[in-house]
Amino acid sequence: MQMFQYIQIVECVQRLCIDCAYNLPEDVLEVLTNAWATESKPRAKHILGQLIENAQVAKADRIPLCQDTGLAVVFVEQGANTVISPPPEKPTATIIDAIQEGVARGYEKGILRKSIVAEPLNERQNTRTNTPAVIHHSVVPGAGIKISVMAKGGGCENKSQFKMFNPTESKEVVTGWIVEVVKNAGANACPPFVIGVGIGGNFELSCLLSKKSLLRNMGDPSGDPFYAQMESDLLKAINATGLGPQGLGGDTTALAVCIETAPCHIASLPVAVNIECHSHRHKSIEL
Ligand code: SF4
Questions:
Q1: Atom of ligand 1 lying closest to residue 65 CA
Q2: 190 close to ligand 1 (CB < 6 Angstrom)
Q3: CA–CA separation, 218 vs 191, rounded Å?
Q4: Per-residue pLDDT tens for 99-138?
């Protein structure tokens, strides 16, 4: 049995939140740089250059990449042989409590905008801690813990969509709908995008898959050749829309498309699209 102290988890999550906000992942920077190199429209190329410069300045000056420092989405894989030891003053505290405390500390210490309201429709009062984070916890074989934090901006999240298709629907119809979702996202979602797609599962699982797909390394295609081809076709079709960086035209509307799938009911074909902006911030750690 492997044991971690509660405070270890808190401090890890705190660091991940700050790291997310200041440092664009290297793989994202690389695809942005490749897009800049191949972009044919001068204005689009200029914008891509500014995004690259923005990432360099944020890293050097330790300031957020964007004013919207996001809702913290945390994926945790806890080994079945791993326990968290709570501190004496919080004997019932769990790993979930530790993650929430880590997010609150990270947003405070990193001077990151707190964007969470306690209640969604009526009072909408800011919690002033950027918590609660949205946490997806799963138990995996073995020991150890993997924690991934994604800082998800509101503008791009707002343009994400779900659709339940007829189970006999063709790949072409599904692909066409995904391209329409991206076109409708437009400038408000801050292109160039990373497009997360979840296909299968059920209503909620397809949405979760579309979010989880965004954790994939940008250069890695789906492990299934059918979906790897679909990712490639979708990326071409999305970039052919000409929406471009910041919606001002160009060859670069999306940097990548990531599809994750799951088995589903014979009567269903759920598809979810999670739009992610160019400020594609996520960091992981394995303990
Ligand atoms: S969508 Fe992304 S880049 Fe645009 S304001 Fe939100 S976090 Fe920032």
A1: 8
A2: yes
A3: 16
A4: 999 999 999 999 999 999 999 999 999 999 999 999 999 9
Question: Which residue lies with its CA nearest to atom 1 of ligand 1?
Answer: 155
Using the mean position of ligand 1's atoms as its centre, give its distance from the Cα of residue 70 in Å. 8
Tokens of 201: 């599962």
- Reported as a single tens digit per residue, the pLDDT across 262-277 is 999 999 999 999 999 9
In the block, tokens 């250069």 appear at 219
pTM, rounded to two decimals: 0.95
**Separation of alpha carbons 145 and 272, rounded Å:** 28
The SS3 assignment for 85 reads strand
The amino acid that residue 201 corresponds to is G
For ligand 1, whether the C-beta of 66 sits within 6 Å is yes
How far apart are the C-alpha atoms of 192 and 82, rounded to whole Å? 40
Would you say the CB of residue 68 lies under 6 angstroms from ligand 1?
yes
Q: Which domains does the chain have, with CATH numbers?
A: 2-19+65-152 (3.30.360), 154-280 (no CATH)
Cβ burial of 179 (10 Å; 0-12, 13-18, 19+) is buried
Residue in 51, 279, 280, 282 to alter for ligand 1 test, most ligand atoms within 8 A of Cβ = 279
Q: What are the b/e assignments for 261-270, b being 16+ CB within 10 Å?
A: beebeeeebb
What secondary structure letter does DSSP report for 98?
H
CA of 24 to the centre of ligand 1 (A): 13
Q: 100: which 2 tokens? A: 């929430």
